């Protein structure tokens, strides 16, 4: 085992971070989609909307514990963008992490499809559909409710992701109330759960561009067809763009209302504590 470890050990920091990010994102999306698959294919006899939300929130906690010490466990381009805006993360790594997270999400969709293969085909009566009473596409990607317009869905995702990032900024800011070391993932999971139960009705609360596009691409290739991109008046681009805008809004709101107003005389000491302050 020692010899194998020496042969397989990777010393390049970026590759190590990408491997950790791939694994934690894979676990996050696999549990999240699995919770939806169990609810849908059992016709809510072995799960409901609350269990789906719990699965997604707890998966965030598990993912952070898996990769937080190596890659930061971003698992979401919206969070990566916030870290870039606050100069906690280099901009050149942003597209690298987005690609890794998208790949992990795509692989997660494949894993859940294999896991629930018989259940999906039994529930759908042998037809993979994107709409209708026996649709199964919503297991993998998010779609707006029939009454929700694209504009309303866009605003929904900007607000939801903005609230998420505002809360995350507060949790990460050591100058603020603070969270006991090691419990940050638990608090962030509770934050995600609160947003899901409060803002999930309109469009399923994706809040994560790669969480949506990876599985959506999988369903397109796996047999659900092009309707995965056309349903909801071409809804597919909203979970890609709106969470990024919401991330910037939430990050700047925290700076403008909280982080900019700490006493300047404490600046050096606070910087050493790992402050979350927009430098430029």
UniProtKB/TrEMBL annotation:
Catalytic activity as recorded in UniProt: glycerol(in) = glycerol(out); urea(in) = urea(out); H2O(in) = H2O(out)
Keyword entries, A-Z: Cell membrane, Glycoprotein, Membrane, Repeat, Transmembrane, Transmembrane helix, Transport
UniProt keyword DNA-binding, yes or no: no
Keyword Oxidoreductase: no
Membrane topology (UniProt): Multi-pass membrane protein
Gene Ontology CC: one annotated term: basolateral plasma membrane
GO molecular function, one term: water channel activity
Subcellular location(s) per record: Cell membrane
Transmembrane intervals: 20-38, 50-73, 94-116, 154-171, 234-254
Pfam families assigned to the protein according to its UniProt record, in alphabetical order: MIP (PF00230)
Quaternary structure note: Homotetramer; each monomer provides an independent glycerol/water pore. Could also exist in other oligomeric states.
Function: Aquaglyceroporins form homotetrameric transmembrane channels, with each monomer independently mediating glycerol and water transport across the plasma membrane along their osmotic gradient. Could also be permeable to urea. Also participates in cell permeability to H2O2 and H2O2-mediated signaling. In skin, transports glycerol to the epidermis and stratum corneum, where it maintains hydration, elasticity, and supports lipid biosynthesis for barrier repair. In kidney, contributes to the reabsorption of water, helping the body maintain proper fluid balance.
Family: Belongs to the MIP/aquaporin (TC 1.A.8) family.
Protein name, UniProt field: Aquaporin-3
UniProt source species: Manacus vitellinus
